[in-house]
Amino acid sequence: xxxxxxxxxxxxxxxxxxxxxINEQCNRLIKQGKKIYKLGLGQSPFPVxxxxxxxxxxxxxxxxxxxxxxxxxxxxxxxxxxKRMLKVDSSADDILIGPGSKELIFxxxxxxYGDLIIPTPSWVSYAPQARIAERxxxxxxxxxxxxxxxxxxxxxxxxxxxxxxxxxxxxxYPSNPTGCTxxxxxxxxxxxxxxxxxxxxxxxxIYGLTQFDGNHQSIARYYPxxxxxxxxxxxxCGAGGWRLGTFTFPKDLKWLLDAMAVVxxxxxxxxxxxxxxxxxxxxxxxxxxxDYLFHTRRILKxxxxxxxxxxNSCNIWAPQPQGAFYLFADFxxxxxxxxxxxxxxxxxxxxxxxxxxxxxxxxxxxFGRNPExxxxxxxxxxxxxENALNFSRKKYSGSDLDKAFLDTCCTDIxxxxxxxxxxxxxx
Length: 427
Hints:
Number of helices: 15
Strand order of the largest sheet: 2-8-7-6-5-3-4
Strand content: 5-15%
CATH topology of the largest domain: Aspartate Aminotransferase, domain 2
Number of domains: 2
Shape: globular
CATH class of the largest domain: Alpha Beta
Number of strands: 12
Distance between the termini: 52 Å
Radius of gyration: 21 Å
């Protein structure tokens, strides 16, 4: 029998997700006894709140297949969450639950025949999903002078030559991989362009509640008729492995929700029952939620600000983050020195850094940037989130965190930052 394996052309040549691949590589190196600083996979370091864990425990017996669109009381809780946290009106009928927002974004591309517009840098899975679904991808370059944000002018320029072409625009903020977000005025201008060309806008707000100032604004407030809000439990609630994502549709796109539900019924059937019941507690929130968000935001802000300052002080450019737990760094000022070591691409940079220092970060090319651009994403999550939360609650109940917090709770982060800067300067 032939060993030849026939692969669909849409899958042939694709590599595993870069974020998952770097995590597995790190784990292999750790098993070999090497000291590795895991700044590659963007997984929340914080524990799932006790109240949500207890809700899962109480509902572990739930075993029935749930409705394809999701548990009714959960969809009602999410509608309430949208109103309370995002100031967006929706109802349970507008919401679709899936096993992660990643799956929902993929199904959207399967059922809607339109080009995918993605600002770069962007999350690693948007473009591969489009390729699998046979959709055209248009990268819209951004630049560091604008903190890597999509401009209304660039979106207008892409749409105007073929104004009636169906398109999906994905806007992710606070951003993976940059940690930056959009000011309200920029959101309003982007909404005007989206409305003008009737694009479907997927507002990926999975990091919305991690915005440091607690003032995340959904673009759905300014383009309600054409915006799908994508969210879930993985980032703000620390429950990535639970795999629960949400889509909130505008009334005008009810037909799209219906089409996605049909595909869901033939693929994942329904999201895990115990997880959905526990998620009700998460989205209903309470005093515990305010406390959890206050401390997690404050911790991430302190680490992000310090890390960005450390890099910039050594001439490695990175914008000050505004949410999430990422920095997108530009090592371009060291191009000549790195070139003498045979480092010419972002992938070369990350491979050499890991081999020589044990610090794992992801190359900018994984996020859609030119490989010759020496950029990389740093996920500052290599710390004990539960310990950091306890320390913050006990020691810093009413004041900002300081360097003493980093030295006590984030020693690996501090060591990793110093290794990056020392290695770069001494290359």
